[in-house]
Amino acid sequence: MPIIVNLDLMMAKRKISLNELSERVEITPANLSILKTGKAKAIRFSTLEAICKELQCQPGDILEWTDEANVTSP
């Protein structure tokens, strides 16, 4: 998938656990885990806004687009 989720990196930088962030943004730990691992098919803007507010970051710090067609495999 060409969208890479860097939520785990931002959480590590802010030293916040999955459970703590899930409580603060009022999303289940299971759903936050699905997002964190890149398995989510969509995210609501309200959820993205809440995550960015808690982590004091921009959406682009969490979501990254890559052009798979131009990525070479090792």
Automatic annotation (TrEMBL):
SUPFAM superfamilies: lambda repressor-like DNA-binding domains (SSF47413). GO terms for molecular function: DNA binding. PROSITE patterns: HTH_CROC1. Residues 7-62 form the HTH cro/C1-type domain. SMART domains: HTH_XRE. InterPro entries: Cro/C1-type_HTH, Lambda_DNA-bd_dom_sf. PANTHER family: DNA-BINDING PROTEIN, DNA-BINDING PROTEIN-RELATED. This is Putative transcriptional regulator. It comes from Microbacter margulisiae. The lineage of its organism: Bacteria, Pseudomonadati, Bacteroidota, Bacteroidia, Bacteroidales.
